[in-house]
């Protein structure tokens, strides 16, 4: 489809030249852009106004401003608006999604998985300290800074994020992607930032096995997924787990704890022997 004229005008005014598409999610398409004066490259997230209410976009922008810059978070550089779309200028990462990496290479080694989880935990620590819950953690929203094997990881997509704590309405209701939602969220209970750690547990399970803990053969629909999560059907019986350390499985169980008050926190994750032990074995970026 041809771009609206006003978008071209806005891009020209911002002195941005548009290149190819970097990715797309449920709400946005993201393009590579080059800032003409200095040639620096960024990612431009274009959000269609017809599909995203104004207050939802405002919240994402507010969240991005509050979070600011962090080595493991994709940060906002600028913002533009046209009659039909919003454009969020983001710092660029060029290694693609962790999702694509899993599809291409299969399961991660424990060492690589620990390095990734450590970086996600650092991102979450920062985000939660700012009073923000991400609420849509999944391999599609974890981006690699470069195509290198040991590329740094950044958390992106604050489109479903919410402020929590004093002065904010309690978080409740389903928000995110069913396969990564914590049981308290699926039950419709008020919930806290622990839901993000649950999602890290699902992600870690996938990284180490190549399949989803609550949908091992990839055939479950949303209702079946919900039923499996609520029944807490997570097991390590598949052959592949025979080659995974007990330490890694313990970390997964701590993250996939059905009781949010007992679930591993970002700080506990960062100091867990498995994350420290394996992560320390390779020089970590940052
Ligand atoms: P949505 O809300 O539609 O899911 P995202 O913010 O997740 O939008 O962006 C969609 C996809 O675009 C991401 O999954 C990723 O592939 C790509 N993308 C997003 N931000 C960047 C970025 N800063 N650099 C490179 N690619 C990005
Ligand atoms: Mg997304």
TrEMBL record:
ATP binds at residue 45. Keywords: ATP-binding, Calcium, Kinase, Nucleotide-binding, Repeat, Serine/threonine-protein kinase, Transferase. It comes from the Eukaryota. Residues 16-275 form the Protein kinase domain. Signal peptide: none annotated. GO terms for molecular function: ATP binding; calcium ion binding; protein serine/threonine kinase activity. The keyword rRNA-binding does not apply. This is Calmodulin. It comes from Prymnesium parvum (Toxic golden alga). The lineage of its organism: Eukaryota, Haptista, Haptophyta, Prymnesiophyceae, Prymnesiales.
């Amino acid at each position: 489809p041809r771009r609206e004229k006003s978008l071209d005008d806005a891009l020209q005014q911002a002195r941005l030249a548009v290149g190819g598409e970097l990715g797309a999610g449920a709400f946005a398409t993201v393009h590579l852009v080059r800032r003409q004066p200095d040639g620096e490259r960024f990612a431009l997230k274009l959000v269609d106004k017809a599909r995203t209410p104004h207050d939802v976009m405002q919240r994402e922008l507010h969240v991005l401003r509050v979070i600011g810059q962090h080595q493991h978070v994709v940060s906002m550089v600028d913002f533009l608006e046209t009659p039909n779309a919003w454009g969020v200028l983001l710092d660029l990462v060029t290694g693609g999604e962790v999702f694509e990496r899993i599809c291409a290479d299969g399961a991660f080694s424990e060492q690589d998985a620990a390095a990734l989880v450590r970086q996600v935990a650092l991102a979450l620590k920062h985000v939660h300290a700012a009073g923000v819950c991400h609420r849509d953690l999944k391999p599609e929203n974890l981006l690699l800074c470069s195509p290198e094997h040991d590329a740094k990881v950044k958390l992106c997509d604050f489109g479903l994020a919410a402020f929590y704590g004093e002065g904010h309405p309690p978080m409740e209701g389903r928000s995110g992607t069913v396969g990564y939602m914590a049981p308290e969220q699926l039950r419709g209970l008020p919930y806290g930032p622990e839901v993000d750690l649950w999602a890290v547990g699902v992600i870690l399970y996938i990284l180490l096995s190549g399949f989803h803990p609550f949908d091992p053969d990839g055939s479950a629909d949303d209702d079946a997924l919900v039923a499996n999560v609520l029944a807490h059907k997570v097991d390590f019986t598949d052959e592949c787990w025979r080659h995974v350390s007990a330490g890694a499985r313990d970390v997964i169980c701590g993250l996939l704890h059905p009781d949010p008050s007992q679930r591993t926190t970002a700080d506990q994750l960062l100091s867990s022997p498995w994350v420290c032990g394996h992560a320390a074995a390779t020089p970590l970026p940052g």
